[in-house]
Amino acid sequence: EQGTDENGPIGHGWTYSAHPIGAAAGVANLKLIDELGLVKNAGETGAYLRAAMKDALSDHPHVGDIRGRGLFLGLELVADRGSKEPFDPDRRLNAAVKAAAMDQGLMCYPAGGTLDGRRGDHVLLAPPYIVEEDHLDEIVDKLDAALQQALGQVGH
Known about the structure:
Number of strands: 6
Strand content: 15-25%
Strand order of the largest sheet: 3-4-6-5
Helix content: 40-55%
Distance between the termini: 67 Å
Order of helices and strands: EEHHEEHEEH
Radius of gyration: 21 Å
Number of helices: 4
Protein backbone atom coordinates (compact mmCIF):
# COMPACT_ATOMS: atom_id res chain seq x y z
CA GLU A 1 0.00 0.00 0.00
CA GLN A 2 1.40 3.44 -0.95
CA GLY A 3 2.46 5.68 1.94
CA THR A 4 3.19 2.85 4.35
CA ASP A 5 6.19 0.83 5.40
CA GLU A 6 6.46 -2.33 7.43
CA ASN A 7 5.59 -0.34 10.60
CA GLY A 8 2.39 1.24 9.28
CA PRO A 9 1.48 4.57 7.66
CA ILE A 10 4.15 7.24 7.29
CA GLY A 11 3.13 10.55 8.86
CA HIS A 12 4.28 13.26 6.47
CA GLY A 13 2.48 16.54 6.49
CA TRP A 14 1.08 19.24 8.65
CA THR A 15 -2.08 21.29 8.43
CA TYR A 16 -0.41 24.45 7.12
CA SER A 17 2.46 23.02 5.10
CA ALA A 18 2.50 24.08 1.48
CA HIS A 19 -0.75 25.96 1.94
CA PRO A 20 -0.66 28.63 -0.80
CA ILE A 21 -3.08 31.07 0.85
CA GLY A 22 -1.28 30.90 4.20
CA ALA A 23 2.08 31.31 2.48
CA ALA A 24 0.80 34.29 0.47
CA ALA A 25 -0.54 35.95 3.63
CA GLY A 26 2.81 35.40 5.37
CA VAL A 27 4.77 36.90 2.48
CA ALA A 28 2.39 39.88 2.29
CA ASN A 29 2.83 40.44 6.02
CA LEU A 30 6.63 40.35 5.73
CA LYS A 31 6.51 42.83 2.84
CA LEU A 32 4.32 45.18 4.87
CA ILE A 33 6.67 44.96 7.88
CA ASP A 34 9.54 45.90 5.56
CA GLU A 35 7.67 48.69 3.73
CA LEU A 36 6.54 50.33 6.96
CA GLY A 37 10.01 50.07 8.50
CA LEU A 38 8.62 48.30 11.55
CA VAL A 39 11.84 46.47 12.44
CA LYS A 40 13.74 49.76 12.42
CA ASN A 41 10.93 51.31 14.49
CA ALA A 42 11.20 48.46 16.99
CA GLY A 43 14.89 49.20 17.44
CA GLU A 44 14.35 52.93 17.90
CA THR A 45 11.31 52.71 20.14
CA GLY A 46 12.90 49.82 22.02
CA ALA A 47 15.84 52.05 22.91
CA TYR A 48 13.38 54.68 24.10
CA LEU A 49 11.46 52.12 26.20
CA ARG A 50 14.63 50.79 27.77
CA ALA A 51 15.77 54.31 28.68
CA ALA A 52 12.32 55.19 30.08
CA MET A 53 12.26 52.00 32.16
CA LYS A 54 15.74 52.69 33.49
CA ASP A 55 14.83 56.28 34.34
CA ALA A 56 11.70 55.23 36.20
CA LEU A 57 12.73 51.93 37.76
CA SER A 58 16.49 51.39 37.87
CA ASP A 59 16.79 52.83 41.40
CA HIS A 60 13.78 50.88 42.70
CA PRO A 61 14.81 48.75 45.71
CA HIS A 62 13.14 45.65 44.21
CA VAL A 63 14.33 45.92 40.60
CA GLY A 64 17.40 43.77 40.10
CA ASP A 65 17.89 44.38 36.40
CA ILE A 66 16.28 45.74 33.25
CA ARG A 67 17.44 43.95 30.14
CA GLY A 68 16.42 42.89 26.68
CA ARG A 69 16.65 43.97 23.10
CA GLY A 70 14.41 46.09 20.93
CA LEU A 71 10.84 45.99 22.16
CA PHE A 72 11.35 42.77 24.14
CA LEU A 73 12.43 43.83 27.62
CA GLY A 74 12.46 42.15 30.99
CA LEU A 75 12.30 43.49 34.52
CA GLU A 76 13.92 41.31 37.19
CA LEU A 77 12.25 41.58 40.60
CA VAL A 78 14.32 40.95 43.72
CA ALA A 79 13.77 41.10 47.47
CA ASP A 80 17.12 42.82 47.93
CA ARG A 81 18.68 44.86 45.15
CA GLY A 82 22.19 44.79 46.57
CA SER A 83 22.47 41.02 46.89
CA LYS A 84 19.91 40.22 44.14
CA GLU A 85 18.26 37.84 46.60
CA PRO A 86 14.95 36.74 45.05
CA PHE A 87 11.56 36.92 46.71
CA ASP A 88 10.18 33.80 48.34
CA PRO A 89 8.41 31.98 45.48
CA ASP A 90 5.42 31.31 47.72
CA ARG A 91 4.65 35.03 47.50
CA ARG A 92 4.00 34.62 43.74
CA LEU A 93 5.14 38.19 43.11
CA ASN A 94 5.18 37.82 39.33
CA ALA A 95 1.50 36.76 39.37
CA ALA A 96 0.67 39.70 41.65
CA VAL A 97 2.40 42.08 39.23
CA LYS A 98 0.46 40.59 36.31
CA ALA A 99 -2.86 41.05 38.13
CA ALA A 100 -1.97 44.60 39.17
CA ALA A 101 -0.86 45.41 35.62
CA MET A 102 -4.18 44.14 34.27
CA ASP A 103 -5.90 46.42 36.79
CA GLN A 104 -3.93 49.27 35.22
CA GLY A 105 -4.85 48.19 31.68
CA LEU A 106 -1.39 46.80 30.90
CA MET A 107 -0.72 43.32 29.62
CA CYS A 108 2.62 41.83 30.52
CA TYR A 109 4.15 38.39 30.68
CA PRO A 110 5.14 37.32 34.20
CA ALA A 111 7.27 34.32 35.07
CA GLY A 112 8.87 32.73 38.06
CA GLY A 113 11.56 30.19 38.71
CA THR A 114 14.03 31.88 36.41
CA LEU A 115 16.89 31.72 38.89
CA ASP A 116 16.94 28.02 39.68
CA GLY A 117 13.64 26.57 38.47
CA ARG A 118 11.80 27.66 41.61
CA ARG A 119 13.05 31.08 42.76
CA GLY A 120 13.26 34.28 40.75
CA ASP A 121 10.56 36.62 39.44
CA HIS A 122 10.47 38.71 36.30
CA VAL A 123 8.03 40.48 34.04
CA LEU A 124 8.44 40.76 30.28
CA LEU A 125 7.14 43.52 28.05
CA ALA A 126 6.72 43.11 24.31
CA PRO A 127 4.71 45.99 22.84
CA PRO A 128 3.80 45.91 19.13
CA TYR A 129 6.15 47.19 16.43
CA ILE A 130 3.80 50.11 15.73
CA VAL A 131 4.08 51.53 19.26
CA GLU A 132 4.86 55.23 19.68
CA GLU A 133 6.76 57.05 22.42
CA ASP A 134 3.63 58.33 24.19
CA HIS A 135 2.39 54.74 24.42
CA LEU A 136 5.73 53.68 25.88
CA ASP A 137 5.53 56.39 28.54
CA GLU A 138 2.09 55.06 29.44
CA ILE A 139 3.43 51.48 29.62
CA VAL A 140 6.22 52.52 31.98
CA ASP A 141 3.84 54.49 34.18
CA LYS A 142 1.42 51.58 34.39
CA LEU A 143 4.19 49.08 35.09
CA ASP A 144 5.53 51.29 37.87
CA ALA A 145 2.04 51.58 39.41
CA ALA A 146 1.48 47.82 39.06
CA LEU A 147 4.78 47.08 40.74
CA GLN A 148 3.90 49.33 43.69
CA GLN A 149 0.45 47.76 43.97
CA ALA A 150 1.79 44.18 43.80
CA LEU A 151 4.53 44.82 46.34
CA GLY A 152 1.94 46.28 48.69
CA GLN A 153 -0.19 43.15 48.35
CA VAL A 154 2.58 40.61 48.93
CA GLY A 155 4.52 42.68 51.47
CA HIS A 156 8.13 43.55 50.89
